[in-house]
Amino acid sequence: MAGCGDDLIYLPWEMGMKKGLKVFGVMALLVVVAGSWWNYQYPSGSWRYKITVEVETPEGIKTGSAIREVIYQSTPHILPEAHRSRVQVKGEAVVIELGEGKYLFALMDTNGPYRIVSELFPYNWETQRDYIAYYKSLTGEKKTLDQKLYPTFVTFKDINDQMSVTPVDRHDLSQAFGTGVKLKNITVEMTDEPVTWQIDELLPWLQSLKSNLDGSYVTTGSSLANTLHVGYFKRGQ
Question: What pTM, to 2 d.p., does this model score?
Answer without folding.
Answer: 0.80
